[in-house]
Model the fold of this input.
Amino acid sequence: MLEPRDETAGGAPNPIRHNPYRILGLPGEATWPQIEGAAERLLASPADRTTSWDLPWLDGGPDRAPGAVERARARLADPDLRLPARMLWFHERFAADALLELSPATIRNVLEGWSSTTQPVARHDAAVVALLAAFVLDPEVERGGIWSRALREWREALELEPYWMAVLEVEVEGGFPSPATLAEVRELRESALAHVAEPLLSIARAAVLRDRSSRALRALRILQEALPRPLFSDLVGDLAGHVGGDLATERETVPGTEPPQREEAAPPGAEEVAAPATGAAEPAEPEGPDGPEETAPEAVPPAGSSRTRRARWPLVVAAVVVGLLLVAVPRLPTGETEPPATERPAGAASTAILSLLEANDRELGRTLLERHRIERELEFARDAIAGYDTLAADYERRMRRRLPASRADYRRVVSLRREVAARRDSLLEAQRAANARFEALVRRDASLRRAFNLLQRRAEPADSLSATSLGEPPRR
Done:
């Protein structure tokens, strides 16, 4: 029987082991009152700290000391920490029973069964199982197949719109003290694949530091095969140059994956940076001056390396990361984009505009969720009408041929069909109203951004225009 490994796989931190949802024994769809209740129960009953979500074989069980419980609750109160923690944990409460059967010996079979589902949220949970299996079954990246499978599962799951609607629904209706905005959910969606790739990238970095270039090479090859080329280039940077000639040669032959070598030359793929094409599209904007510092990747050179590192290449790579992540995965409509980080103009007017932008963004989220629900109900109504039409046609055929058929049942089917058709018509009217409201909110969002940019221009010296004054919207 396989033994559970330490919290790291080849030097990579395991994002599942210390997940705050695991510590509190909750699914990702838990609301804030449920989070508060779980934390209070764990703090009040130290002896009763076992849940269906524990995965005790992973590390003996989660740390549920009072300090750990309080830290988990604090992390889930912060949307910046809550969103990625939820993404890297099981979302549905129905997963609890399956987790009771999960162990190092059964994880492969569980993964096969879970991956066969067609339910979007369950597909996300299957991707979590795949990542967990990679940590448990191949922590040193000796074979690599399970890591490739995990990244493939994640790429497919992250493209499913209903999963992101489920995330948005929890945020809108979960009663959180600081609910995530629609723009923050979109931002997570755009960077989700980079979050998932981070453990394998950390393995490569750690292997380089320990002079284990073959392990680093295996990890980077898996990432190169699994990730979109621009994303691979941005995440890896020139780390590939420290693991030997093989990967460097492969990278040279793959357009769009070469690391930038000088500041004045934009990395390949930079021309792909553009505003999302869905919704009310806006022109592509230049990166703000604060973006590189927030996303600059850390490249780790091997001990004793004689290669001369250019001091400023990480700034160039990071400047492109911000833009490339905007097109890395399917995304929500552009009108919902949250203003990116930049220097804000002082004054009450700019503060008021930022408040209006935040309120408008939250209303956009609620309206998008309403549209999604109407679409689901319409789909059910159309399926029901098609079913009733089939039944009615069968009754009519039998009656024409004077075969046994209940006229009372036929009339009941016709009556039910009328009721569902009336419901469909009301849903279509509600859909038209929701679409009109959504479009009005998108226009209001664009108007508020133009007003903010005008204030920014007036607040700046004439000879110094920032990225915001050139059209990039502000970030709260």
